[in-house]
Amino acid sequence: MSGAARLSAEDAEARRTALYTALGQVPEGKVVSYGQLADLAGLGRAARWVGRTLGQLPQGSRLPWHRVIGASGRLSLQPGTPSGDEQRARLRAEGVNVANNRVDMLRHGWRPMEHSG
User: Fold this and answer.
1) pLDDT in tens, 66-104
2) Distance between CA atoms of 108 and 111, rounded to whole angstroms?
3) How far apart are CA 29 and CA 23, in angstroms?
4) Most buried in the list 10, 31, 45, 48, measured by CB within 10 Å?
5) What is residue 109's DSSP assignment?
6) Where are the domains of the chain?
7) Does the pTM of the predicted model rise above 0.85?
8) Domain named Methylated-DNA-[protein]-cysteine S-methyltransferase DNA binding: which ranges (predicted)?
9) List of long-range contacts for 95-98, beta carbons under 8 Å, 24+ apart
10) CA-based angle 82:84:90, to the nearest 5?
């Protein structure tokens, strides 16, 4: 049994709440990696869990799931799929340049510590 499977329902809900709270802070026109989002949410090395959890968001969720991409800037959702095409359209609508299935993390990556203080 994996560690995630042993979590109580309350712990699992607390993890999801932390994830959703962190995701809600990612500004328009910026992206974060799955691992960075896990870290921002205080979840440690949970990039894969973040990906699975975002894939289970309720239909019509207003959370900016489209702003979460692979660490190298690669979009995980495949072009030509409904969710992949929606992610690309949403990112482009926010001014994020998507080229060759990638986003320039230096230009569009969100670094919250640079904007504080």
Assistant:
1) 999 999 999 999 999 999 999 999 999 999 999 999 999
2) 9
3) 13
4) 31
5) B
6) 8-109
7) yes
8) 17-96
9) 95/29, 96/29, 96/30, 96/31
10) 100
